[in-house]
Amino acid sequence: MRILGIKNAKIDDTTLDVHFENDMVVCFEDCWLRDHCRCSKCFVTNTNLRANHLIELPDVTMKSVIVNGSELQVTWSDEHESTYDAEFLAEFEMKAWVDRRRINHIIWRGDEISHKVARIPVDKFLKTKQGAKAIFQSILDYGVAFIEEVEPTLDGTAVVAEALGGIQQTLFGGMWDIKVDESLNDTAFMSIPLPQHTDLSSFTDPAGLQLLHSLEHTNGEGGETVLVDGFYAAAKLKEEHPRDYDFLTKFPVEAEYKFNGHSFRHAAPAIELDMITNDVRQIRFNSYDRSPMAFTNGDDCRTYYRSLKHFASSIENKKNHWQFKLKPGVVMVFDNFRLLHGRTGFTGRRVLGGTYVSRTNWMDKARVLELIH
Ligand SMILES: C[N+](C)(C)CCCC[C@H](N)C(=O)O
Ligand SMILES: O=C(O)CCC(=O)C(=O)O
């Protein structure tokens, strides 16, 4: 690979304008440059951490700058010298820096991705980098992947969860199952249909991934899984009702969940944007656990209902749904920040095993596999 060179660099008061050989120009402030000095007094290479606190950052000016091929040297007013690689500096061209932080989701509707999502045998997922990459890439692209030939037990499911980033503990414990239990006061534990929702909208940190594994369904029918791409629904809302989209990206919808002696409450936008890329980052939506809210004015209140209704009708539109029956041996893993899920009503004895993985932990795995920045 050719090393990127620097054509020239010019000090303009407190700014350094760097012209690269590829004609790109990036301007750096002196405080930034001093903070990013990579000498051994300022930076610890093996831990990738700064050596000094921000408060100790001296109030200095640039005395001179020398360009040396693919390196740039700055001498400071306190005689400190800093050397920067062109490749390092080029990373901070704003558009490229933002683009590296984007996840290039493939937006979908209906069953159009059923032949595209990864379906990988568990051994290949656990033991090969190629298998792991295929699963994580599918989660990044479509929000869902399937791990096959898994032992149809909670323990078998736990092994998969560990490899996806680790089991996220919640009020339901680590691994849980879903079966009809009239004593539990939650629709998940009944046999009625469940409309599309994300899980744990009342949490400060909802599950990143959710795993579902059909362990048993006997003497009955129904209980099919329904998935919908929340990012598709958000894009559609933006196109058809831009003011509603804008409202839902800003207005804190409060959710609450009181269950089994627990009490959760959190307010956040139904469509949360990433503050760096401005792309949709997270959908939180469960029609049932919305808290009763007070509103600043009537307009906000009416907009809350109108925009959530518009959003929900896209989410509940059958044309956008992908519906299928989960089978023992197949662990479905999906992105709870993106997809909404539900199920059709059922009869018979049905047991699903599952668990959650936190977003930070699965993103760590995807980053180590070099699938995201
Ligand atoms: C999957 N499992 C049965 C464990 C939990 C379902 C939780 C659904 C809940 N109302 C929520 O807060 O999202
Ligand atoms: O029973 C199912 O298939 C899904 C249950 C569910 O959506 C939930 O518990 O949140």
CATH-derived architecture of the largest domain: 4-Layer Sandwich
Number of helical elements: 10
Helix content: 25-40%
Uncertain spans: none
Shape: elongated
What is the domain tally?
Answer: 2
The CATH superfamily of the largest domain bears the name Clavaminate synthase-like
Q: Taking all residues together, what is the mean pLDDT? A: 97
Strand content: 25-35%
Name of the CATH first level of the largest domain: Alpha Beta
**Beginning-to-end CA distance, first to last residue:** 20 Å
CATH topology (fold) name of the largest domain: Double-stranded beta-helix
Structural class: alpha+beta
Bound molecules: N-trimethyllysine, 2-oxoglutaric acid
Write down how many β-strands occur, each being a DSSP E stretch of 2 or more residues: 22
GO biological process, one term: carnitine biosynthetic process
Pathway: Amine and polyamine biosynthesis; carnitine biosynthesis
Domain TauD/TfdA-like: 120-355
Protein name: Trimethyllysine dioxygenase, mitochondrial
